[in-house]
Design brief:
Blueprint (H helix, E strand, L loop, with lengths): L3 H15 L6 H10 L1 E2 H8 L3 H9 L8 E2 L5 E3 L5 H5 L6 H6 L5 H12 L11 H19 L7 H17 L5 H6 L5 H12 L8
Antiparallel strand pairs: 1-3, 2-3
Length: about 200
């Protein structure tokens, strides 16, 4: 049985991190397709949702990625996977941050991870986070330095990176653009490059 006080504390922490923005019916539908209510996930795994909430409040697990308009606290289906790889939630931070050579960068990525705001990957892992950062930087640089008539080789290299990022990222929803205060990385590094530089037709 859910402890209302714990659920309320999670909701309050979520709003502190993300702001207080409305979820539309379209947002709810997107989140329901991509995520699962915390209680449902814990029940399927034989776990305790309130125990997971305590770990979230202690900064040992990520906060929910979304709170649906009906109040359901929505989490990724692999919420506990990284903790499992680390041997348990208590060892997750040290295991996680070691994936970055720069300790300060590792701590920054950890803070982003446990905030629950890392909804920009289909599966949030250190490897995926590093790949996303590399690809978005390379795509941004390519767009900034593109000449007036990019070569077919340049376009092919751009689209290879865009396709790789596309495979990592979900579609996002309008709520994300509210809480992030602007376009998402998919908007700027997947949709925009494809619109600006359409792939060459097959056979050319």
């Amino acid at each position: 049985m859910t402890d209302p006080a714990l659920a309320r504390r999670i909701a309050e922490r979520f709003r502190e991190v993300n702001g207080d923005h409305p979820m539309t019916a379209a947002d709810d539908a997107y989140v329901t397709a991509q995520f699962v209510p915390l209680e449902v996930l814990c029940a399927a795994l034989g776990g305790d949702a309130d125990g997971a909430r305590r770990l979230m409040l202690d900064g040992l697990l990520p906060l929910p990625g979304y709170i649906r308009s009906d109040g359901a606290q929505m989490v990724p289906r692999d919420l506990f996977a990284l903790a499992g790889s680390a041997g348990g939630p208590e060892g997750l931070r040290a295991w996680f941050t070691k994936h970055w050579e720069d300790a300060d960068r590792g701590e920054e990525e950890w803070a982003a991870y446990v905030s629950g705001r890392y909804v920009c990957l289909r599966s949030v892992t250190p490897e995926g986070m590093r790949a996303k950062d590399r690809l978005t930087a390379e795509i941004t640089e390519a767009l900034a330095t593109a000449g007036p008539d990019p070569s077919p080789e340049w376009r092919a290299a751009l689209h290879a990176r865009v396709d790789a990022l596309d495979a990592l990222e979900p579609a996002f929803t309008a709520y994300d653009r509210l809480r992030f205060g602007g376009p998402t990385s998919r908007d700027t590094c997947v949709d925009a490059p494809r619109a600006l530089y359409p792939p060459e037709p097959a056979g050319r």
